[in-house]
Target: 3-methylmercaptopropionyl-CoA ligase
Amino acid sequence: MLGLMQDWPLLMHTVLDHAAIQHPHRDVVSRSVEGPFHRTDYATIRGRALKVAQRLMKDGIRQGDRVATLAWNTWRHLEAWYGIAGAGAVYHTVNPRLFPEQIAWIMNHAGSRILMLDLTFVPLVQAMADKLPLVERFVILTDAAHMPQTSLRNAVPYEEWLAEADGDFAWVRVEENAAAGICYTSGTTGDPKGVVYSHRSNVIHAMICTQVDAFGLGAADRVMPVVPMFHANGWSLALSAPMVGAALVMPGAKLDGASVHEVIERERVTFSAAVPTVWMMLLQHLEATGARIGSMNRVAIGGSACPPAITRAYQEKYGVRVIHAWGMTELSPVGTLFAVKPEVAHLTGDDMLRLQAKQGTPPYTVEMKITDDDGRELPWDGTTFGRLKVKGPAITRRYFRREEEEVLDENGFFDTGDVATMDENGYMEITDRSKDVIKSGGEWISSITLENAAVGYPGVAEAAVVSMKDAKWDERPLLILVMKPGVLSPNLTQMRDFLADKVAKWWLPDDLVVLDEIPHTATGKILKTRLREMFKDHRPAA
Ligand code: ADP
Model:
């Protein structure tokens, strides 16, 4: 017997339709790439997104075609997303911080036929245009007055291009499992892989993110996505904000501490989301100027582990609750979020901060387990760590154009490549990435735990731990440090003494080297593959 409810497919445009009907005049404010602030609302965004869809079809874009964007968070990028998906096509967000060769590789792999790009990226794309043979047209996200001189194929200013559509158009109805967007992983581990979101997975994931114990979004919120839309699906905010009628405040191209602060104050932002580096920069600005962020009441921090010092400062000094979150491109991206369950509500002070250093608990729709190398499930005791695996309706089951490759285990779980503990209350804590864990005498040493402990040494700016080959133990930890300017580095004995009461004795590093700089990925994470390559023949002196 079937249920007798209506068939109402979960399509992206339904989110924008709802926002335009229920919250037509809600602000969508952007710092434009051209400079000035720009104000619009959901009703207007919807009208223009319909024009984008109509205009794309005039350019020959059809269902399933890819249309790429290389753009900051602004209202135009938002219109482009909904317009592309609303034409039945697939938005493909490209990360401008990748190397030009990677961008060309990704563009060609995705087969994007049109590229919409911000003024900022015209020189970059111009220099690599001959490597983008599949792009038929370049739409520059600006108006005629700001259009630069360019030899890019069929280049047009977005506003002129859009004006050629009258908006008399209906969304192209696709089925809810049709592709809506593609985002490539940043390639920390090998070639970038294309993650293909569907309309259904995007809508379900956005609903999850609005929940009270997730981002807790409502119509009274003024949401500022600092996390760029080209990072891991923009953490859902381009969907979850309009879904509940929250105002959107788009920060554009300027993401330094002072600029982010200016937008928060000017637009009375209540909620924001970004990687720890951004919140570190804002904190430095606040400390240096004595400025406040009175309108903000919570902030989601993820992408890499949020140091307790940041959580403490925001919560205790600025009254902003920190929502530590973990996720990855393959999870749409949110996998866990930190909220206080009644079981832990009695914790205070440092005990609560210690718990908040964990990445939180999976929301409904994210099934989670930890296993050993043979796939056996491990206990949720807060200390045993193993491979973190997940299952759910907004989690990857295959990568684009690698359909032959099985990425799920025999029970349908996706191996995240992260190593984690789960505690008795369901809180997950990342202890490493599986490729970075140091396997010493059959036991695992967490490189992240060692790094976090080592940065506590006075004067250490950054720490990374990689494995060294060892005849007896197979692998042993090598500690790599970058010191703050003008500070003398500790020697190995001093560092080992410092770490002795923080980690198990057999975890202590067997050698230490100091570098001027540690290599990073385009998304700001330590590039362990490069470090491993640099130190592959390194052996401890003694
Ligand atoms: P990539 O996998 O290419 O680096 P992602 O942006 O998808 O690109 O990164 C996902 C990874 O980032 C996760 O697998 C995890 O290792 C790391 N990560 C994300 N959030 C956190 C967090 N809160 N704490 C620790 N690590 C995190």
